[in-house]
Amino acid sequence: MENRTKHLFLKPLCLGAGLCVAVGAHAQDDRPLIEPDVTPVPVTEALIDTENFEVGAFVGVLNIEDFESSLLFGGKLTYHLSESFFFEAGVGFAEGGETSFEKLAGNVEVLTDSERDYSYYNINLGYNVLPGEAFLSENYAFNTNFYLIAGAGATDFAGDTRFTLNAGAGYQVLLTDSVAVHIGVRQHYYRIDVLGAEKTSMNTEVSTGLSVFF
Amino acid sequence: MMGEFDGAAVTAGYGGFWMTRNLSAELWASQILGSASEIRMVNANLVHQPFPHWRVSPFFTLGVGHIWVDPKATLAQPEERDNSIGHAGLGIRAYITDRYFIRAEVKDYKVFTTRTTNEEATEWKIGLSIFF
Question: I need a labelling partner for B80 at 20 to 30 A (CA). Which of A56, A210, B95, B106 fits?
Fold first, then answer.
């Protein structure tokens, strides 16, 4: 009898108490414990949307082995196969200077003026090895890609067209959804025999460029 | 695509059109840079792929074209030669994704010269191709 009375009164009491606690806790869950002072600012970063083609121009310096360094300019067309891989076709124009032999010996010419015109084309495969972000002050964030690139083509210099291999790396910063800035270094290798025995010439190119996605 | 044409480095590009599941027509432009000459070549060919649904699928090709040989300036008789050329070849297409594939091929060329004997050249190439 005593147990039954206990159960009769205690059960509804416990249920009632439990309900109150539950309701009370639920009412308190809506507000956070600590209100943050900072309101999050939405950041918009440039991203490549659906544009797969990129056309650009570049300018830089090309060191032509034995023939001084020269201003280089050119253009390129890139097709992005995926986020990581891309194909690039490029052309470049420069002009060779004098060899040390021509400077020291006096009135001697190894190449004619038209033979000093240096032009090349290449078809390359590139790989975006380090996609990332760059921050300029606290207001600007840019998506960037560090890429490795290599390929082959031909160089027209010193009266002949020579098969050329090239390899290098570059850094691309996406300024907007359709404009990017590049800076890169490329090495060009070809075999040349204008100064006697045939040797492998390694020409270094440092260039910067602007490109548009479409 | 890149490879070797009778020992000299070749750089080539092509565009192709698939007429049926097995048959396609292609147009090629190649530049061959050797130690003795610079060669430019244009070829049109038909490609037959007997098993197009295979991931690594072989193909056969037959074509004709034109070749321009420009000997290097240091040789005795620097005059340009141009001839017709015909070729037969076989190759492999290995699909990486449904749009990109690696293509490797071997072609045997016959250069139809004005002399009594024709010239022969063997070429192999490997490269990446894209479907548009």
Answer: B106
**What is residue B76's predicted lDDT score, i.e. its pLDDT?**
60
Spatial CB neighbours of B66, under 8 Å, sequence gap ≥ 6: B41, B42, B43, B82, B83, B84, B85
Query: pLDDT, tens digit, for every residue of A149-166?
Result: 999 999 999 888 899 999
Q: Is B100 on the interface with A (CB under 8 A)?
A: yes
Split at pLDDT 50, 70, 90, the class of A126 is very high
Query: Nearest Cβ partner of A161 from B38, B128, B130?
Result: B38
Determine the residue of chain B that is closest to A80 in CA distance: B130
**Count of C-beta atoms within a 10 Å radius of residue A125:** 16
Exposed, middle or buried: residue A202 (CB in 10 Å: 0-12, 13-18, 19+)? exposed
Asked if A87 has any chain B CB less than 8 Å from its own CB, the reply is yes
Q: In this prediction, does ipTM exceed 0.85? A: no
Which residues in B lie closer than 8 A to residue A191 (C-beta atoms)?
A: 35
CA–CA gap between residue B9 and residue A36 (Å, rounded): 66
d(CA A210, CA A148): 18
State whether B33 and A161 contact (CB < 8 Å): yes
Task: Give the integer Cα–Cα distance in Å for A149 and A85.
Answer: 10
Instruction: Verify whether the Cβ–Cβ distance B33 to A81 is below 8 Å.
Output: no
pTM listed for this prediction: 0.77
Identify the residue among A160, A164, A191 best suited for mutation to test binding to B, counting B beta carbons within 10 A and taking the highest: A160
Whether the per-residue pLDDT at A57 is higher than 90: the answer is yes
